[in-house]
Amino acid sequence: MVLLEEIKLVKMKPKYARALRDIWISPGVIEYTLQKKNLTVKNTLKKLINDEAKTIVALINKIPVGCARIHFLRGRKNHIVEMVIFVDPKQQSRGIGSKLMESVLKIIKKKKIKRLELEVNVDNKKAIGLYKKFKLKKEGIKRKVSQRGNKLIDNYTLARLF
Questions:
Q1: Which CATH class is domain 4-161?
Q2: pLDDT for residue 43
Q3: pLDDT at position 1, please?
Q4: Across 37-41, 66-70, 90-94, 110-114, least confident range
Q5: Of 38, 40, 121, 152, whose Cβ has the fewest other Cβ atoms within 10 Å?
Q6: Which residue, among 112, 14, 10, has the nearest Cα to 60 in the 3D structure?
Q7: For the chain, where are the E strands, in sequence order?
């Protein structure tokens, strides 16, 4: 089991893009996201490094094992961030998601954000458990929003107010 001390959180760098892309499209992750299997390293970089987002990468022995991306909304929604988080299936349930969430919450507090929101597949029990642990509340359900093969999956909308 990985000790929390072994997990290092760092700012996203281009050199992590390939490993994070591989995690994002891996079995155990991709079916719970809106991501397509044909995600390129270049597109991964665009999604994880841009002016409207901040991405934190979790490393174990200098190898990316997951990340959290917060997208800062603009205009009349500039008090809101949207979040995506994923962890390598081989490293799940070891505290990495919690450590990433703690980091996200520190950024939100520092930036004086008032609302964190996300969507999660209704059958993604591990992620839902993580979000409940960090006091995100279910606000609603979006019917048949995610494709998984030939099946359409419902998503919960979750949020936390600050």
A1: alpha beta
A2: 80
A3: 54
A4: 37-41
A5: 38
A6: 10
A7: 7-11, 53-60, 63-72, 80-87, 115-121, 137-148, 151-161
d(CA 64, CA 16): 7
Strand partners, 58: 9, 66
pLDDT over 70 percentage in the chain: 97
Instruction: Write down the pLDDT at residue 5.
Output: 62
Rounding to the nearest 10 degrees, give the CA dihedral for residues 77, 81, 82, 83: 180
Of 90, 104, 95, 76, nearest in space to 29 by CA: 90
Residue 33, token pair as written in the block: 């996201």
d(CA 127, CA 123): 9
